[in-house]
Each structure stands twice: as C-alpha cells, then as structure tokens.
C-alpha cells in the first residue's frame, strides 16, 4: 500500500473520506468540502476482487486516513457496477468479481462513520457539476478510460432512476453489428470508444501490418503486446494508421455524445478519464461527429464538449462530496480511528 501523502492547502469546512474503486487502483483520500485532497492512500486492485477481499482493502485505507484526520464526518464510495441506491449494495460489475456486496453496511459497522455508495461515474459527475471550473445544473459526463462510464446531472442532482440502476451511458447501443462489449452486448459505446476498443483496434492493425509502426512498438512493450498506449505512441511518430484509429475512436465517441445530447437538453458535455490526456487527438473527431449528428441545430444549440476539471481525481473528489452531502442522513455511532478495521 502506498503511504499517505498530504495536500498543500488546509481549507476550512467539513471533511470526508472518499474511496474510488477502479479496475487498476483503489484510491482513498481525505476530501475537503471545496474538493481539496488533504491526504491520499492507494493500493492496486487485486485480480480476485470479491467483496470480502475488497472490504479488507477499503477498511485498511479508511483506517490510515481516519487516524491522520479524525475530524472526518463521513465516507463516500464510488465503484464500477450497478449500485442499488440508497442501500449501498453493489449488485454486479462488468469487470470485477464482486457481486451483491453490502459495501455501505460493512463500512458503517466497522468505522462508525455514515457511508454512502454510488456508481463511480456518478460521483465523478457530481464533482464536475458541483466544483468544476464551470458549474452545471444540466450536464452529461462521460469518463473515457478502460471502459466508458457516464453520469447525468439533471436539475442539479445526479439522475439514478428509482433504485439507482439508471444512467449506464457507456452501454447505449451505437453499433449493433459491432464488437462485443464486456457487458455481453454488442455495439455498446464502451465497445467502440474506450481504451479497450483502442487496444483491440491497435492489435488488429498490427496483425494486418506486421512491419508497421504499431506492430514494431508493440514488440518493444514490456509484455511484447500492443495496447492503447502503443497506439498513442505511434501517433506521436506521425503514423497514419494510428492517427486513423484515433479518428475512428473519436468519431464513435461523438456519435454517442450526439445521441445523448439529442435526448436531453443540457448545458455541456464534460469528458474525463485517462484517454482525455490525448487531447484534440480524441476530441477533435468527437466534436466533429457530434456536430454532424446533432438534432435540429437551427433550433437547438450544439453545446460545448469540455475536458473535466479534476482529471483522474474526479472519482475520489466526488466520492468525498457524496459522503458529505448525505452524512446527516447516514449518521451512526462513532468508532475511534484505531478500531476502524477488524
């Protein structure tokens, strides 16, 4: 486990522990109500990510942070998968092995702190809508990384549906005859506009051009295989095949954005996630495809597509804010920090 690191500012106001469960890392942070991260802990996500294993990791992270900041008043969690709201029960996740995981109940029992649990993209959307450089009451948030997640902010609040299972924006169908998604369906936005999609397309390109730049760079990778990172490296060398793959990836993302913007009257589309680091390489074709497929542009504005404020911190910041927003609703008997794990 990585040691605790402290932030540079010490704002006033309430503080919570935010936990962001990702496919690669589990991050925890003490989050102030202005979004400042005061301390952080992270650990690699285990390959066997069942509920029992994950609870032990979350409690270990929480114990470290609570011991350093005993003033925290709540815990918020963002996790991939279908989260039953407000019960804090994670029913299912496409890329993790936890099922029917009673996250909220287990955290509250062990820590004595009120806990709130939501989908990871929802909490990231909350951070961007509440504390981003532009504040929005009506917003679509898409996180483009290994997969595609999404959150809807409607009327100033996260849209979850009656039981928390709504808002699966990464699984709108944009290419029904397209590749199979990790969820089992074909042609989801995630299947054609994610880091996983870029890796798949890169490997197909390398197989078609064994002497090409992508194939050569793939052989230089640590595991000797092409990844999305390989394709990105190839674009930096001006490889036309790699540039074309990003154009295709961005176009699919733009088609998904247009579909969502045509349904909802929103103020902006905010993009987060690791692939945003590629900047205009991804966003230029996405914006072009969005404009191409936008509905009734003479009567409805084509809203801006903007990069998120918090980058990869959006999940942990939003989880902390979620905990603070619902702390009073979830107040339970306090347990001293040294008893935060069993």
UniProtKB/TrEMBL annotation:
Keyword list, A-Z: Membrane, Transferase, Transmembrane, Transmembrane helix
GO molecular function, one term: glucokinase activity
UniProt enzyme class: transferase
Keyword Transferase annotated: yes
EC number: 2.7.1.2
InterPro entries cross-referenced by the UniProt entry: ATPase_NBD, ROK, ROK_cs
Protein name: Glucokinase
Naturally occurring in which organism (per UniProt): Pseudonocardia dioxanivorans (strain ATCC 55486 / DSM 44775 / JCM 13855 / CB1190)
Lineage per the UniProt record: Bacteria, Bacillati, Actinomycetota, Actinomycetes, Pseudonocardiales
């Amino acid at each position: 486990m990585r040691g605790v690191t402290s932030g540079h500012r010490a704002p006033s106001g309430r503080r919570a522990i935010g936990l962001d469960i990702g496919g690669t890392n589990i991050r925890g942070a003490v989050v102030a109500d202005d979004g400042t991260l005061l301390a952080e802990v992270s650990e690699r996500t285990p390959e066997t990510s069942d509920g029992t294993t994950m609870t032990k990791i979350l409690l270990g992270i929480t114990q470290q942070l609570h011991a350093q900041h005993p003033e925290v008043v709540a815990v918020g969690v963002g996790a991939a998968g279908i989260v039953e709201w407000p019960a804090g029960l994670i029913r299912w996740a496409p890329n993790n092995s936890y099922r029917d995981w009673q996250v909220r109940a287990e955290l509250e029992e062990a820590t004595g702190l009120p806990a709130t649990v939501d989908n990871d993209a929802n909490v990231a959307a909350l951070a961007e809508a509440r504390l981003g450089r532009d504040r929005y009451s009506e917003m679509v948030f898409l996180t483009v990384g290994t997969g595609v997640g999404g959150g809807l902010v409607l009327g100033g609040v996260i849209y979850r549906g009656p039981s928390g299972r709504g808002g699966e924006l990464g699984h709108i169908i944009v290419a029904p005859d397209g590749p199979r998604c990790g969820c089992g369906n074909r042609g989801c936005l995630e299947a054609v506009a994610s880091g996983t999609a870029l890796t798949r397309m890169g490997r197909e390109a390398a197989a078609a051009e064994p002497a090409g730049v992508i194939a050569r760079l793939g052989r230089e990778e640590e595991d000797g295989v092409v990844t999305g990172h390989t394709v990105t490296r190839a674009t930096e060398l001006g490889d036309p095949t790699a540039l074309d793959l990003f154009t295709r990836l961005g176009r699919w993302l733009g088609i998904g954005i247009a579909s969502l913007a045509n349904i909802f009257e929103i103020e902006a589309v905010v993009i987060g996630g690791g692939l945003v680091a590629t900047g205009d390489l991804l966003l230029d074709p996405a914006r072009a495809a969005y404009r191409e497929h936008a509905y009734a542009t003479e009567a409805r504005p084509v809203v801006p597509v903007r990069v998120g404020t918090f980058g990869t911190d959006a999940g942990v910041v939003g989880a902390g804010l979620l905990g603070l927003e619902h702390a009073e609703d979830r107040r339970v008997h306090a347990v001293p920090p040294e008893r935060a794990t069993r």
